[in-house]
Amino acid sequence: MNKSYTKAERTRNFIIESTAVIFNKKGYAGTSLSDLTKATGLTKGSIYGNFENKEEVAVAVFDYNYSRVANLTSQEVNRATTCYDKLMAYVRVYQKIIKETMNRGGCPVLNTATEADDTNELLRKRAADVVLNWEGNLTAIIKKGILKKEFKTNIDPRKTALSIIALIEGGIMISNITGDVTSMDLILNTVETLIDQIER
């Protein structure tokens, strides 16, 4: 059953979707009110009638941008039947979305973390929560894989999880800044090798 949205909810969603790429490319500090009004065709009053301030728009946009990747990842992980394949699901997702990610200005988590680490505590915390959640999910998969005897018992689950995250985020950064998607292919191959190496 489709959820019916109120006019206010539809307007909020329109603002979020219309400004998602702008915030991701320009960042919080670089995005002006005129950018928001130009992208949406709405007045300042209409935007601030639906959001308290620019920061609230930026947080909603971050959640929206991240949810696009999170939903795809969740679908792939849930389809996988083994812990090994659940880890490989992350490789499959980022192989699929790297070009779209580059077109949309890069990874919202990486962009937000880089910009907001010293300038916006709310956005920094939002990005940190995403990374910690990602780390927790990967660590849980690896621990389960060890218990199910899919993975070696002498591996460090957290270290492996953090290595996977660092490789993927680093690959997106390199591909985005150089405009070379083949960089991500090579780095995702390294992620595959890392996962292969922990398999029993």
Automatic annotation (TrEMBL):
InterPro entries recorded: Homeodomain-like_sf, HTH_TetR, Tet_transcr_reg_TetR-rel_C_sf, TetR_C
DNA-binding region: 32-51
GO molecular function: DNA binding
Record domain HTH tetR-type: where: 9-69
Database matches in Pfam families: TetR_C_13, TetR_N
PROSITE patterns: HTH_TETR_2
Swiss-Prot/TrEMBL keywords: DNA-binding, Transcription, Transcription regulation
Name of the protein in its database record: TetR family transcriptional regulator
Organism: Pedobacter cryoconitis
